[in-house]
Every structure is written in C-alpha cells, then in structure tokens.
C-alpha cells in the first residue's frame, strides 16, 4: 500500500472525464486492490450523484475528481474569430454554428455540496486549486485532498493550501494538461524529473501521471520517489471503460493515427491526443479559451461520435498509446505492477 493509503497496489486508475472512466471501471479497480477516481467533469451534479451511487453499491474505496472553474480572462474576439473559422466545418456536417457559451462552472457548487453531504475518502482537483474555505469544508466532511500539478510552482501553491498529496502530471499524459493557468503552455520535463522536483519543493506524497505504459516505467517512477502511479490511456480499451467505439478503433489504427500531439484545437486548453485532420487544420488558430472553445466544438464532436468519424473527434491519448491492450481493467492494472 502506498503512503497515501490508496489501495493495495501502486498503480491507480485515473479519472478520464467525458466517458471513459465509468463507475464500472472504478469498481473494477477497487476489486483488484487498486483505487479508481470517478470524474466529475462534464457531468451535471445529478449525473455525478448517480455515478457515485453506482460505485458505492459495490465499494467505498473511491476517489472523485473535480474541474476547478476557470475565472481567468478569455479573449472574446479571438474566440469569435475561431468560431468563424470553424463555421464551414460545422456547416459541412449539417450543424448550426453555436453562439458562444461564455460562462460555465461545471456545476461546481452543487458537486461540492454533494461531497459534503456524502463524503468520499479522496477528492482530487484539476485545472487549479479550490479556495481555502472549500478545502476546509471538504476536510471537515472527512475527505483527504489531492491537487493535480504540472510544475514545482504549482506544487508549492498546493502545499500552501494544505493538500494531502500531489498528482504530478507530465506532458506525456493523454487528455488535458492540468495547468492552473490555461494560457500557459507547459514544458515537456520528463515525469521522473517532475516527481523529483515536486518532492523536493514540498515533501508531499506524489502520484505520478503521464505516458505510463509498462511495469518498467512504474518501477522507475516509484524509485524516483512517487508513492503511486496513475494511468488513464492504458485503460482506454478496458472492458469496463466507456471509450467511444470510434475512439477505440482509432487507437488500434496505427497506420492512420501513428502519433499523439498536444493541441488546443478542441477545447482551448492544452491537451494531448491522436493527431487527426481537425487538430492538424485548426490547432494553430485555436485560442486559449476553455471552456468556451470546448462548447463551440461540442456539436461536431457529438456528430463525429455518432457517425464514426474520427477526424472530427478529440481522440485523447498519451504517449504510451501504442501499448494499450483490451481486456478486464483489473488485469490491465495488474500487468503494470513491477
């Protein structure tokens, strides 16, 4: 068991928002002595409550992850210009060009209220830190806290808040990079070095995340000072994952999708996924504008998922995507234990 007490094995299941991390995946992780984190991102408070109840029907060993709302400035002119650039793409798919949605806190307060009323052992945060009052409220309810960080400065800020541990995420991770400032493009410091830097800066326990594809990498990260390693891409093809069929097929199509790249094209935040036509065509023009850009591209992404079109869909994946295998989630996690 890690120093954090997160299950009996050092490999954990990451919270992959948007579908892949289902309640069944979290339960499967707990069943083999791992620990899974249920994503709250992109779920209404009611949906999140249902997901949490589904997990708790089988286990209390569950963490949850919340997206911290971004209260920074968005360049509205840049977002509107990007919408105009995307308009022909939407029209070709028979879709209306949406009006920008400038505000969206992802049901933040309602989810916090739920977690105070029905506390879980662990709450993790991505895209920033909660305020001190929110952190104290969750602690009083009985939860321990983790913060996703991408550099020593963010790690120190999280330590100052009094979190119990850090999820240290490298640029190799699939999906969104959890930077506090969405306008910053994070560097590509190797995960081993980020782990060592976060430990040196704070002394806090560390969960390492980003591009992990084999037991050898897990062993190296544990040797570097990580208390546990969290994997997401490795579980995208798991039986219990809610990964869309078109996304599953793209992961297996090495000839058409040989590489991952970082991009803002789909959401306005830096994220890593398989390079496709949409990312190649629009990324250079994409502004830092999350979550408004996320909502602008939601209609074509939904259309792409329904119509099996991988070139209009965000195909999130980390650098270890070629090692992804199908099968039970428990077996995938066990295969990564040194």
UniProtKB/TrEMBL annotation:
Required cofactor names: FMN
Reactions accelerated catalytically: 3 propionate 3-nitronate + 3 O2 + H2O = 3 3-oxopropanoate + 2 nitrate + nitrite + H2O2 + 3 H(+)
GO molecular function: monooxygenase activity
Keyword Plastid: no
Cited InterPro entries: Aldolase_TIM (IPR013785), Dihydroorotate_DH_CS (IPR001295), NMO (IPR004136)
UniProt entry keywords in alphabetical sequence: Detoxification, Flavoprotein, FMN, Monooxygenase, Oxidoreductase
PANTHER family, sorted: NITRONATE MONOOXYGENASE-RELATED
Family recorded in the similarity comment: Belongs to the nitronate monooxygenase family. NMO class I subfamily.
Protein name according to UniProt: Propionate 3-nitronate monooxygenase
Protein source organism: Nocardioides aquiterrae
Lineage: Bacteria, Bacillati, Actinomycetota, Actinomycetes, Propionibacteriales
């Amino acid at each position: 068991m890690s120093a954090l007490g997160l299950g009996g094995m050092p490999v954990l299941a990451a919270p992959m928002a948007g579908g892949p991390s289902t309640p069944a995946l979290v339960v499967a992780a707990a069943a083999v002595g791992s620990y899974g984190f249920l994503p709250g991102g992109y779920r209404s408070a009611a949906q999140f409550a249902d997901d949490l109840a589904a997990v708790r029907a089988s286990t209390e060993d569950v963490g949850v992850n919340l997206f911290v709302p971004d209260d920074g400035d968005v360049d509205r002119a840049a977002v509107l210009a990007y919408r105009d650039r995307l308009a022909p793409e939407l029209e070709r798919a028979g879709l209306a060009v949406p009006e920008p949605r400038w505000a969206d806190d992802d049901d933040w307060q309602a989810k916090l209220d739920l977690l105070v009323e029905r506390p879980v052992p662990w709450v993790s945060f991505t895209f920033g830190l909660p305020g001190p009052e929110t952190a104290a409220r969750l602690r009083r309810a009985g939860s321990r806290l983790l913060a996703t960080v991408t550099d020593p400065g963010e790690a120190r800020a999280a330590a100052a808040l009094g979190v119990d541990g850090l999820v240290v995420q490298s640029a190799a991770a699939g999906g969104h990079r959890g930077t506090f400032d969405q306008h910053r493009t994070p560097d590509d410091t190797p995960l081993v070095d980020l782990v060592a830097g976060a430990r040196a800066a704070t002394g806090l326990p560390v969960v390492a995340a980003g591009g992990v594809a084999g037991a050898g990498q897990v062993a190296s990260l544990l040797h570097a000072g990580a208390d546990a390693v969290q994997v997401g891409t490795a579980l995208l093809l798991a039986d219990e994952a809610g990964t869309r069929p078109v996304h599953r097929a793209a992961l297996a199509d090495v000839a058409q999708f040989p590489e991952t790249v970082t991009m803002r094209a789909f959401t306005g935040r830096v994220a890593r996924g398989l390079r496709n036509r949409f990312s190649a065509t629009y990324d250079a023009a994409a502004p830092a504008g999350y979550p408004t850009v996320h909502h602008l591209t939601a209609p074509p992404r939904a259309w792409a998922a329904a119509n099996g079109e991988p070139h209009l869909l965000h195909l999130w994946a980390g650098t270890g995507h070629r090692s992804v295998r199908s099968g039970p989630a428990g077996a995938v996690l066990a295969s990564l234990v040194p």
